[in-house]
Design brief:
28% helix; 6 strands; EutP_PduV; P-loop_NTPase; Rossmann fold; six-stranded mixed beta sheet; nucleotide-binding; ATP binding
Amino acid sequence: MKKIILIGRTGSGKTTLVQALNNYSIEYKKTQAVEFYNNIIDTPGEYIESRRFYNALIALSFDCDIIALVQDCSDDGCIFPPEFAAMFNKIVIGIVTKIDCKKGNINYAKECLYNAGVSKIFKVSSLKGSGLDSIKMFLF
C-alpha cells in the first residue's frame, strides 16, 4: 500500500477519513500534532492555514508516495493557493469530503482542488462510506 499524507483545513474531515479508511470507529478528535496511522499521515489543519508551516508539510511529504489535498465541500472558502501542488515532487490528488452534506458544493470544492494543481479527485463521505473503496484501490 502506498503511503499518503492528508493536508487540509481544520475541520475538513482528514481525521474522520483516516478513521473510515482504517475501519476505526468514527469519533471526533482534533488533531493537535502530526499523527501516523498505518500508511496515512494526518496533519493538523494549522499546517496549511499558516504559511510558516509549509516547510513542515514539505518535509513530511518526503516520507510519502502520494500527497492528498482535502477540501470539505461544505466550506465556501479555498485554503489552497493556486498551483500549491507544484511544491511537491510527488503525485498530488484531491479528496472532496462530506459529499453527503446538504449544503455542500462539490463543484466548487473540485474547482478549488484543480486550481491547486491536483491530478485526480476523489469524492467521499466518511460517515456513509461512499468513495472509500476508490481511494483504497488507488493506494494499492
